[in-house]
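Let's inspect a concrete specimen:
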Amino acid sequence: MDPQDTQGSARVAGEPPVDVVCLGESMVTFLPSRPGRLADVPAFERAIGGAESNVACALAAAGHRTRWVGRVGRDGFGDHLVETIAAHGVDVGAVERDPRRPTGVYFRTAADRATDAHEVVYYRAGSAASAMSPATVPYETVADARVLHLTGITAALSDDCLALMRVLTAPRPGRPLVSFDVNCRPGLWRDGAATAGPVLLELARRADLVFVGADEAEQAWGLGDPAAIRAALPEPAVLVVKHGADGATVHERTGTDVHAGPGTDVHTGTDTVVHVPAPRVDVVAAVGAGDAFAAGFLSATLRGLDTTARLRHGHLLAAAALTVPGDLAAPPRRAHADRLAALAPTAWGTLQLGPGWTGDDQEGRTP
């Protein structure tokens, strides 16, 4: 690795370890100025997007020490990404600058990703991030974290990226808790879900904490029921299955520390299963919710909160993302989120969140 291609050291001597390191590709995203087909949109607004950097930014905004590890081009878009992510309070000292490969970009329409009207066009083939590998990303850049957060997107970028993911998820003494968001994107994989499914299952089984949407599990593995997904993923201490607007279900191994690292047997014992419905949300844009959910759940995990509270904090940060136009949203203040997460089940069940709800003077509406 060329030392000139790095922003700086990952950690200053004597500093405490970061809470979460997030590793993956971040891109410049262009948001449409109005609804409609890409062919009809006359102008776009520049923003940033990337599952892992989204999580890092959300966690930093929630008061946690975070680091984003990635690779961008030595170009203006790379400057914008690094400066913007740093402005969110994220440590970018381990980001590499590639003088030969460009920063990835993508364009998308304003339509919901779940509809046929949604269009997204990626210009990421041969990007700087696709050159991440065990040789270009020293393990020391992630080793000092309490949590290492990864997603299946990185594994799809190149053979070198997949090799890096296998190194990072391999059992080793002192490994951080590995959090893995499946993020199945068949369009990124050769032969689609047929190629993605086995690789994503392999990586998920090596993680300590796994996030997966029921729709993703159906697409990748032909499994939609949480119990069936758990049967296919017995190794992680915690499995979070997301059901969109219907909430999320956690399977958590009782009698096993969620922070247990490699070498601890997490295959025995009985699961505790908890389902928490999502609050009703007045959706502005259905993007970024999965990353925000992961950030909320991880934040509550780092704080030692119980399973129900972790799920509720995940839902609350997802609601923050759903009620703004872009991928990133300012989370509610911790006291505000804690107050909502502590609502009685009946009050939680009637909670409705709309644009502006994260402000100090806003509160969820209960009809």
User: Anything to note?
Assistant: The first helix runs from residue 51 to 61. The longest strand covers residues 27-32. Residues 1-12, 256-266, 360-367 have pLDDT under 50 and may be disordered.
